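Q: Can someone sanity-check these two? First one:
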Amino acid sequence: MARARRASHEPLNEVQTRAEIDRQLRAAGWVVQDENQINLFAATGVAVREVTLATGRADYLLYVDQRLVGVIEAKREGTAPRGVEAQLDRYLSGLTPAQKLSAWRRDEPLPFGYVATGTETAFVNRLDPFPRTREVFAFHQPATLARWMREADDDPAVPTLRARLRRMPALDRLGLRPAQVDAVAGLERSLAEDRPRALIQMATGAGKTFTAVTASYRLLKHARAARILFLVDRNNLGKQTLREYAGYQAPDDGRKFTDLYNVDRLSGTGMLDSSAVVISTIQRLYGALRGVELPDVDLDDRDYDSYDLDEPAEVTYNPQLPPETFDLIVVDECHRSIYGKWRAVIEYFDAFVVGLTATPVKQTLGFFQQNLVSEYTYEQAVADGVNVDFDVYRIKTEITESGADIEAGTVVPLRDRRTRAERYQELEDDFTYGGSQVGRSVISKGQLKLVLETFRDKLFEEIFPGRSTVPKTLIFARDDNHAEEIVQMVRLVFGRGNDFVKKITYASRREGENPDTLIQAFRNSPELRIAVTVDMIATGTDVRPLECVFFLRPVRSSTYFEQMKGRGARTIDAADFQAVTPDAEVKDRFVIVDAVGVTEADLDEAVPLQRHTERQISLRDLLRKAGTLTADADEVATLASRLSRLNQQLTDDERAELADLAGQPLWDIVRGLTDAVAPEQLNPATQAGPAAVRDLLAGALRPLAANPPLRERILEIRRAHDITIDEVNADRLISAQGVPAEERAQVTVKSWHDYLEEHRDEITALQVFYEGRGRVGYEQLKELAARIARPPQAWTPESLWKSYVLLGRTAEAPGNRGITDLVSLVRYELGLDQELRPYRSLVEERFRGWLLRQEQAGATFTADQAWWLERIKDVIAVSVEISPDDLEGAPFTERGGIDGYAGAFGERAEPLLTELNEELSA
């Protein structure tokens, strides 16, 4: 793996390469010797330079415990390691008769081979079933090779981890849901195929952590993995993950996981040698790699465990935490952190990486090399009764939507964010704020009071009609100050005391409250009905009785929104539910109360399985359409949701009666309906034509269509569980008008999105964007422009841009834009940029920022240098990048071309050109 080096340095020559390799070997614990000074007893690992073999001269021979085990082939920096594989193989197999006497296995090739250039190291283990060269950050330590040798001697039939992964025993399905079985089996297939990365998509609440614990147990026991790293999104989730491991009972042994293997959380004391599983955040892991002292693991230190980096992480070798420390890394709730600024931390380790996520975005799939080993969507989880479906209740106010004005002369309180100290100040000018500032830089008590009063007044009329106890409600605030205001306003609006609502944030501990105790009370206490948080309960934390997820803050990330939403999705036993919410029978849904428009934002989110309300179409009408096979896809989805909710409410006798009538459990019918409207089945049928769609839906509806007694009995049972609701509020039509231009633009943008998704593995420029590696070149953009210009798309950057203008997604007017604007269009569609702007304006902005940083650092430029910098910026704006050859063309020839540039900047000329490419281009 390439180390971070200055882009302007000259490649290392062979002497420098050897010196760097010597340094790296010593850092990893090897003693480096010349052949005439050889002493194999100097240390466990000895690397001997420049040794003649039967097939040539090896740069280094590696000895472990006085036995010859490997070869290092050193090459000049810039040499592709895989181009040297044949030469390395000759050396591994080319020992002289005398050398074979000291070899670990005399009649076999040496097992461990490295190709090193000083900045890249590649490794092959010839003991693997199918030896494959892979990049590693550094040489393995001698103790590691010694352990691998012992393992191979102990079990020659399966000498390595990769060999053992190919001989895993059958999975015991007891206690696992079908989706968890699929995930573990899919992961083990991927590992057996030696695929370095794998992604498991599993809906929030469907048991991702339990799945990972099951896989961990099998890898530790059957594959004899040395150690597993479990990365959590937040430190407080580490406690929950540790509980999950501690509670896991081995299916073949009966003992608890932690009775068999040590599970440790990474803390200031470091990592125990005996730890089989280590739980950490990416921030703690980075700190450990840098050798800094870590804070107490039991403290929820948000400043430490949730911070982000300004620049991508740079890592250096740490002998206390070498790359071979872990055999598997599990990344829970994996998101942009692993393929963004923290990527180098993950890639430091020579380990398989498996990601767990409910909503894989494009970059996630790119990082995991499109290796999605199992897929279990939110809609499938609802159909299976693993999760409950959700409804959305939208609250709009004028201030939330548009903000407000405060006139000059008004005395307003101003609060210090850190100390919360207030002072009063008279406004000298009118103060205008927008809706996006509410809750962040402006606290509008009128807006907050109106939203909460509306929630209170509509709670038992429209949101949870017929109920009298406030459902367990989680409110998401913008920050801790906003959360404080919400807590006080909830108490005022509901006329309740301190035990009714609590703030649960990272600041709670500093204020004398234990967040863990508060979360436990929120789960179990009938008195604590409402919790207000920022992001402490946003991911991973389960509160099964939760029925209401209330957004008083916007969310930009679709992945984060799905995680927040998922807090309400978990099912709960009826008796446990009634213990904390006595006036409810079963939890068959939850409600998203949206006071900020988060459900209307352009997020890639799961949609409710129910597409029509009861008012729009009744269960009787849905079953009638099922009987006549006239239900469309949305109606089939809605029917699946209704039957799923009903199944949650059934008694055991009713469930058994329907199963007897149907010849199968009601769950199976629901799953068949859900699968039929899933995109992977519905989309191909739609492309095939109306007849294919009818056949698909008819097949799913057949268990109902062919069984009138079943349909009738479902209705009878449903009526027994219904309550009568008087709906007095009629809907009102706001507008109805044709917008053909906007509709065409919407189709174009959607087609563009689908095109990117479909061709991401074919077009080089798209591969670069999806995988997040390197920069896109002008020739790659030309290829993309040529591809999209072909029929049936016939797109140009200008026509695509115009569609976004028509949809109001950019304020820029369409014009004659260049190929480089494809950079902006692709980055915006992938969610890498929040705003769609012309590429030139982005380059101009980056250039101004770069000049400002130069000025702050004390650098100054002459008028001649400024001329060069401006023209270089112009070239990057139209060509994405600049090369030294470009300096020999216009307009640079006006001032001497490349010689004039070198004269203007002297020794800084080459590194400056590299720096400008990195700072200004895509």
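And here is the second, same format, sequence then tokens:
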Amino acid sequence: MKNMTQIASRSSQLMLFTRFQMIASALVSTVFATSAMAGDLAVTSVDLTQGAQFGTTTLVGGRPTMVRVKVAVTGQTTSQINVDAVLRVYVGGQQMAGSPFFSRNGPITAPITPNVFNVNDTINFTIVAPVSTDVDFEVVLDPLNKVVESNEANNLFLLSNKVFSCRKTLDVAYVSVNYTPGGGEPVAATIEPGIGDAFMRGIYAVAELNYHRSPLGPLNWTTDINSSDTTLLSSLQTIRLTTIPAAGYARPEFIYGWLPGNPFSGNGEANGIPGDAAFGNTESTRFQRTFAHEIGHCWGRSHTSNTIATVGFDVEHHLVSPLSLGQTHATTQYDVMVAGQLTNVAWVDSGTYLDCLTDTRSQCTAFAPPGGGENPASDAQRVLQISGSYQHQIGRKPSRIELSPVNQIDLASPTADDPQGDVLLQSFAASGDLLSSVRWKSATTRESCAECANGRPHLHANSAVSILIPAAVANQELARIELRDLKSGNLLATRMRTASAPHIASLGSRMIDGVGVASHSGTGPFVELFWDATDADGDALSADILLSCDGGQSWSAMGVNQRGASMKFALSDIPVAKNGQGIVKVRVTDGLNVVDAEMPTSVGNFGPDASELKVLDEGSIAGDSQWSNSWLVNAPDIHLISPNASQSYPFGASILLHASGWDLEDQFLPNTAFTWTSSIAGAIGTGRQILVSTLNPGTHLITLRGTDSGGSFVEKSVSIIVTARVIFGADINGDGFVNGLDLSAMIANWGGTGVGDLNFDGSVGGPDLAAMLSGWTG
């Protein structure tokens, strides 16, 4: 709350403003001979929205906000032209940087009955408020007195003590799936930041979205997704979990796989509600909503049947591409969590919006990484990832679980016990001692995300299993796991550790020509990594391939669940090692036993067959992977989120410049990495997200440059239009001239507010004098 000095100051400002409006009204009335039956303008409401506003919806600091001012027109029967306003924003009693703000769309023609679905039925402002418990808004209506009113005393509207809460940056990694049954990878431009994540950016209120590709090449997938969906979800989760944060790396909150087209019968799927991994389609009419829908499941939101019930607002107008959708969303549109809908008929209801706001993964924490992602919790430890397919009972066919190979995760928290779970997973030591026990709920993702038929949802015959359990308890390694149906006690699956662990006999690599190797860049150099692993028990083997660029402090996946004995990849798809500290780790499992082999990496000029093998231990051999020195420069991934191409702004409006930037080596790029320039104005500013209101009328080519710590940069450009608009009224007395009479009026109120406050910053001073002199007529 304000102290009494602040309240008194605002009251005196209001009195001076009213006096100014009355003087100006009289002067304008002299110039414009109008009827004595003049109408009146008044602000009826100021709506603050960051995608949706349900009355008391939490606002998030650092997130773009649209301030929508609704104006009442009374005393006349027709709409009123030339209606505009100025907005002042105070944070903790001090006017925030950029204030006063001039409208995004004014002057408007104010209707008698405004409809908030119509963007231009309200006067709109774009702001980015900081985290604060004390943000005040002052709207000055008709600041240039272009409208003759019967009452000038009601043209100042105050909205006080608004709270902008802290929420973190959310880290979402995406993987391009090279789906060979469907023709390969999705189009890169479809899934890139600003397009693939557009719906999510619009509806989930986090401070910033760090949506970026996972630091590995495309994920090769050779089996029909309709029979391997749960395996894909397990692979995606493994990619997420094997990311060991350290030295600036972070484990993303969520990971998402993109398929080409829409080959999956359910559009997309998540590994749990809540969950951490999902996949979906790139069908043009639905892919953006599918992404937001599956992430909604990961937040913990089940399917709904709701409409959004209030008009939604796409603040940055993300969904203009590729479907040219409008900025507002009608109350009759579906919540994003209604199954099977297209992008153009969906937005977000209050329950789904709140799921994101209240989820622990979106909350600010003391040591949260700047680019989001999770730090290991206090209970993080070596765990085993128990995954597979829950095959639900159909008719007389009983339920069962088909387990996938168990993956070892070096640092993660075990799955929390769910009192409502219907499956009991227990692990036992070789002695038979119970080591761990956890209840898990099986049916959270059984409903298909395809559209309901006759009001009834489709049900998957199988759903994903995803449970993390301690690998050892009290120094006892687990030797057996059992999964049972809690209601019937029936055994659903079991796995025992076999007597012999796999043996990795050799590990090496060589440069190859890259023919047929999928990569993000499409260019090399290309490497084949190969290993020789055997198992005395004859068990089938699979391998995860991990990379560390800092001597083993942090790790990320290069490949998971590899069934062969080699993997081909492009060096341009993985991070560069720091100071020669690169390590490749091959982790082989026979289903429960896990063994590792490591190989240091070095970079140099080597021929296509360069690979030196050396004795590692007990007959195993590994080589220094000598990779081409063209793998020394990875340019950052830079994308321009807003403004949109060919967007038009009136002079003085705050234009939001918003960038996305991520780098294989640096990860989330800092604000200093982004610079903005205009083809007319030159340098504009620095930052991931900035507001600019000083661009002069004309067509501006706005160029974003994103630079990584090594000096590599990428530029992206967009053309926008700034149209002419008068925002200062230097002719104070309205006689048609700017001369000594106007100067005298200004000086008489120097240091005050109201008369002479040409730039509406709340104080008459030097900038106002400069504005008057620039328009001097004598």
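A (reply): Looked at the second one. The two ends are 47 Å apart (CA to CA). The helical segments are 4-31, 188-191, 198-203, 225-241, 287-299, 350-358, 740-748, 766-774.
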